[in-house]
């Protein structure tokens, strides 16, 4: 199942424009369940990395430089969704529903399946004492080939800015907050862990391409 939020007007000879987006996969089989591309790439992407070190919680001098795991990385972005182009060509879905399908594709990422809710209720009525939540699809935030990140959506807000005659939204801004899932969040053999390790290893590869600077540029000749 694919949900595409992208409408692109191209001109002859113009270079292809890559889009960021979210892909949902089955964590066991890696089968792609849904692809959601952002209609317009955000102008900004905010990332925060919180260091995970023993030194944060200990005053012992031997632990000041020890890291307990990868940093906790969070990402925030604003995505815009606009049905103007679809309405200009009388797209049947846009005419009938506006951008509700696009919004629903994003929003249902953070919903448990309704079938799961019904099943759990049936189990509860049968007297089942402990009902383990089913594992949801694995969300991947993809921002080019160097950033394929397993994530959990942590914040989600929608501002609907324009409506059609049936009060369907036709323009909206969606603010999304995500937490990158690393090897401390998932079992080591989980698909998300292997994707995270590939992300970190690629980051180390990119860091190795940085030529660095010299001490003279810092105004010193050597480290005392």
Indicate how many domains the architecture comprises: 1
In CATH terms, what is the architecture?
Beta Barrel
- Low-confidence stretches are 6-10
Structural class: alpha+beta
Major beta-sheet overview: 8 strands, mixed
Strand order of the largest sheet: 1-3-2-6-7-8-5-4
Shape: globular
Radius of gyration: 22 Å
- CATH C-level class is Mainly Beta
In DSSP terms (H or I, runs of 4 or more residues), the helix count works out at 5
How much strand content do the residues show?
25-35%
CATH topology-level fold name: Elongation Factor Tu (Ef-tu), domain 3
Number of DSSP strands? 8
Order of helices and strands: EEEEEHHHHEEEH
Round the mean pLDDT to the nearest integer and report it: 88
Residue share in helices? 10-25%
Distance between the first and last residues' Cα: 61 Å
Task: Quickly list its features.
Elongation Factor Tu (Ef-tu), domain 3, single chain, 8 strands, alpha+beta, 8-stranded mixed sheet, about 220 residues
How would you describe the overall organization of this protein?
The chain has five helices and eight strands. The chain is globular. It has a single domain, classed as Elongation Factor Tu (Ef-tu), domain 3 (Beta Barrel), CATH 2.40.30. It has an eight-stranded mixed beta sheet. It has helices at 84-88, 92-97, 100-107, 114-125, 191-208; strands at residues 3-4, 21-25, 32-37, 46-50, 72-82, 138-142, 148-163, 169-180. 22% of the residues lie in helices and 28% in strands. The N and C termini lie far apart (61 Å). The longest helix is centred in the C-terminal third of the chain and has 18 residues, at 191-208. With 224 residues, the chain is an alpha+beta fold. 16% of the residues are buried. Mean pLDDT is 88; it is low at 6-10.
């Amino acid at each position: 199942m694919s949900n595409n939020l992208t409408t692109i007007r191209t001109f002859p000879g113009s270079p292809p424009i890559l889009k960021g987006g979210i892909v949902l996969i089955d964590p066991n089989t890696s089968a792609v369940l849904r692809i959601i591309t952002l209609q317009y790439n955000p102008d900004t992407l905010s990332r925060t990395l919180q260091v995970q070190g023993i030194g944060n919680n200990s005053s012992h001098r031997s632990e000041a430089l020890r890291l307990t795991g990868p940093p906790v990385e969070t990402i925030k972005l604003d995505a815009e969704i606009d049905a103007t182009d679809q309405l200009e060509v009388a797209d049947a879905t846009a005419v009938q529903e506006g951008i509700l399908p696009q919004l629903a594709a994003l929003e249902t990422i953070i919903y448990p399946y309704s079938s799961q809710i019904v099943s759990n209720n049936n189990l509860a009525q049968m007297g089942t004492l402990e009902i383990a939540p089913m594992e949801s699809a694995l969300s991947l935030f993809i921002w080019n080939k160097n950033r394929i990140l397993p994530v959990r959506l942590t914040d989600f807000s929608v501002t609907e800015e324009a409506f059609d005659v049936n009060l369907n939204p036709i323009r909206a801004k969606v603010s999304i907050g995500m937490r990158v899932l690393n090897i401390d969040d998932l079992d080591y053999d989980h698909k998300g862990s292997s994707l995270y390790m590939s992300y970190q290893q690629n980051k180390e590869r990119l860091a190795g391409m940085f030529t660095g600077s010299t001490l003279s540029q810092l105004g010193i000749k050597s480290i005392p």
